[in-house]
Inverse folding.
C-alpha cells in the first residue's frame, strides 16, 4: 500500500478508533475492579475508609459465619469468582457477577446459599460444611436492616443470643517434650520401681505428683530422699499421708523448688519443723493433722499466704 | 501480482485450533466446566509443543529462523509499518514474529500454571500433586492473572491484523484460511513446505506428550 496522504489519514483514523476502544476496554476493566476505585477515592480523601466498626453486628455475628463457611475459598489468596468475603469491605466489592451483595431482595449470595447442596451452583459447594438455617436467617436479618457496618448488636434485639465459643490454646507438644527430657529417665525408672506413685500433673505438664498411697507402709525418710535426689526439682504435689517419714524430712521438703501442695496427715510433725516449713518459697497448700497446729502456727501460715488445711484424725 | 502459497496446512490448522481452544478454555471456566477446561488446556499444551517442533522442523515461513529478527529491527519495522512506509509480504513480519514468541511464552505460562492449579473442589492440575498446596494455590492465582496478559496480547494481535486488512489492504485473515496470498513479487528462493507426513508425526508426538501429562 502506498504512503499517500489519504492512506496516512486512514491509518490515523484507525489508530484513533483503536485508541478509543482500548481506553473503553481499560475503563470497563477498571470498573470491574471496584476495590481499585475505592482505594483511589479513599486516597484522595473523597470517601471515608470502607470498613465495619469493631463493635458492629457484622463483625460480631455475620463475619464469623462467612469465616466458617466461605473464607477458605473467598479470601485474598484465592478469591474464587473474584469474590472475597473475608471482611465487610470486601463484601461490598462483590465478585465476578458484580451483583450487589448488600441488597436484601434477590440477593445472589443468599440465593446461592439456599440452593440444594447438590446443586452445581450451591454455596458452599457440595461436600463442604454448610451453614445452618439459623445462620442464614441471621444474614438475612442483617441484610434487611441495611447491611450496615456500623449498627451494633443493640440494633438487632430480635437476633438470637450469640453462642459462647470456648477456645483452647494450642498445645506445643515439642516444648513439653523438651521440658520433660532432663528428668525423663529418672521418672521412667521410679515409675517402674514404684508403680502408681509417680505421675505428671497433666499431659501438658512436666511437673510431677507423688502419691505414696500404694507404698505408704514403707515410705520413709530414706525413700523420700531417693525421690528428691532423682526428681526433687520437678515435684509439684506430694502426698505423704500416713507414711513413715519423720520431722527430719522437712529439710528435704524445703529443697523441692517447685513444691506447691503437700499432704502430711497421719505424720508426726514437730512444732518447730512446721514453722520451718512455712518458709518454703513455693508452697501454697499444706494438709496436716489438726493436733500439730496451734494459733501461732496458723498465724505464720496466714502471713505466708499458705493455705493450711487441718485434718481431724479418727 | 502473483498468488503465492505462504502458509502450509499444518500452520493454518494450528492457528485456528489455537483460537478455538483459547475460546473453549475461557468459555468452560466461565461456566464452571472444569473437566472440559482441563481438556482444552491439554489441547493447548499439544498445540504449543507442536508449534515449537514445527518452528524448527516445519515449513520455511513457520520456522523461527524465518521470522525471528533482532528486537530493534522489529521495532524499526513496526515504526515504519505504522507510517505505511514498510510492508512485509511473505510469512510473519518482524514485529509479528516477536508477537508469536511473546504469545507462546504467555500461553506457555498459562498452561504451565494451569497444570499446577487446583480448585479446592476435587480438581487439581496434572502436575499439582508434585508441589505443595500453598504453591498450587499461588499458581491458581497466577493462572487467573496471566489470562489478562493473554487477552491484552490477543487485542494487540487483532489490532495489528485489522490494520493490515483495513488499512494496508492485505487480507491476513483470508491468507490464514487459504494459505495463499497475492504478492507483488515472488521470493527469489522458492519457499520450502514440509511434507504433511512430517506434520502428522510432529502432531502425534505433541499429542502423545499432552496425553501423557493428562
Amino acid at each position: 500500500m502506498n504512503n499517500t496522504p489519504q492512506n496516512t489519514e486512514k491509518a490515523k483514523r484507525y489508530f484513533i478508533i483503536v485508541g478509543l476502544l482500548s481506553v473503553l476496554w481499560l475503563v470497563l476493566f477498571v470498573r470491574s475492579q471496584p476495590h481499585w476505585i475505592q482505594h483511589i477515592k479513599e486516597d484522595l480523601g473523597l470517601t471515608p475508609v470502607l470498613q465495619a466498626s469493631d463493635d458492629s453486628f457484622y463483625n460480631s455475628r455475620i463475619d464469623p459465619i462467612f469465616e466458617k463457611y466461605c473464607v477458605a475459598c473467598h479470601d485474598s489468596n484465592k478469591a474464587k469468582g473474584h469474590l472475597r468475603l473475608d471482611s465487610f469491605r470486601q463484601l461490598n466489592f462483590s465478585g465476578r457477577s458484580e451483583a450487589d451483595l448488600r441488597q436484601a431482595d434477590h440477593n445472589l449470595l443468599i440465593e446461592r446459599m439456599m440452593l440444594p447442596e447438590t446443586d452445581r451452583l450451591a454455596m458452599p459447594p457440595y461436600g463442604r460444611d454448610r451453614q445452618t438455617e439459623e445462620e442464614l436467617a441471621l444474614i438475612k436479618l442483617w441484610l434487611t436492616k441495611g447491611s450496615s457496618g456500623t449498627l451494633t448488636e443493640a440494633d438487632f434485639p430480635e437476633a438470637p443470643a450469640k453462642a459462647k465459643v470456648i477456645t483452647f490454646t494450642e498445645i506445643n507438644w515439642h516444648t513439653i517434650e523438651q521440658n520433660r527430657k532432663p528428668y525423663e529417665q529418672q521418672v521412667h525408672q521410679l515409675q517402674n520401681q514404684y508403680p502408681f506413685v509417680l505421675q505428671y500433673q497433666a499431659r501438658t505438664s512436666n511437673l510431677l505428683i507423688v502419691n505414696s498411697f500404694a507404698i505408704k507402709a514403707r515410705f520413709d525418710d530414706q525413700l523420700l530422699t531417693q525421690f528428691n535426689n532423682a526428681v526433687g526439682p520437678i515435684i509439684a504435689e506430694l502426698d505423704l499421708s500416713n507414711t513413715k517419714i519423720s520431722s527430719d524430712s522437712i529439710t528435704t521438703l524445703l529443697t523441692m523448688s517447685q513444691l506447691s501442695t503437700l499432704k502430711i496427715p497421719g505424720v508426726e510433725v514437730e512444732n518447730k519443723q512446721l514453722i520451718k516449713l512455712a518458709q518454703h518459697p513455693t508452697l501454697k497448700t499444706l494438709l496436716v493433722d489438726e493436733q500439730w497446729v496451734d494459733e501461732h502456727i496458723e498465724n505464720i501460715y496466714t502471713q505466708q499466704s499458705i493455705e493450711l488445711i487441718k485434718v481431724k484424725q479418727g | 501480482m502473483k498468488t503465492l502459497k505462504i502458509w502450509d496446512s499444518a500452520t493454518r490448522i494450528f492457528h485456528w485450533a489455537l483460537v478455538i481452544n483459547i475460546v473453549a478454555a475461557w468459555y468452560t471456566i466461565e461456566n464452571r466446566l472444569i473437566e472440559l477446561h482441563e481438556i482444552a488446556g491439554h489441547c493447548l499444551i499439544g498445540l504449543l509443543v507442536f508449534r515449537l517442533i514445527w518452528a524448527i522442523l516445519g515449513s520455511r515461513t513457520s520456522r523461527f529462523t524465518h521470522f525471528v529478527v533482532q528486537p530493534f529491527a522489529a521495532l524499526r519495522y513496526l515504526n515504519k509499518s505504522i507510517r505505511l512506509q514498510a510492508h512485509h509480504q511473505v510469512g510473519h513480519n518482524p514485529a509479528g514474529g516477536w508477537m508469536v514468541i511473546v504469545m507462546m511464552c504467555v500461553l506457555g505460562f498459562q498452561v504451565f500454571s494451569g497444570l499446577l492449579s487446583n480448585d479446592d473442589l476435587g480438581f487439581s492440575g496434572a502436575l499439582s500433586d508434585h508441589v505443595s498446596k500453598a504453591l498450587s494455590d499461588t499458581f491458581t492465582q497466577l493462572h487467573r492473572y496471566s489470562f489478562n496478559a493473554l487477552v491484552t496480547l490477543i487485542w494487540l494481535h487483532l489490532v495489528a491484523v485489522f490494520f493490515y486488512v483495513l488499512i494496508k489492504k492485505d487480507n491476513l485473515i483470508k491468507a490464514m484460511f487459504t494459505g495463499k496470498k497475492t504478492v507483488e513479487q515472488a521470493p527469489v528462493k522458492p519457499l520450502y513446505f514440509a511434507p504433511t507426513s512430517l506434520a502428522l508425526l510432529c502432531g502425534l508426538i505433541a499429542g502423545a506428550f499432552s496425553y501423557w501429562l493428562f
About this structure: The CA atoms of residues 110 and 172 of chain A lie 40 Å apart. The longest strand of chain A covers residues 235-239. The two ends of chain A are 121 Å apart (CA to CA). The mean pLDDT of chain A is 91.
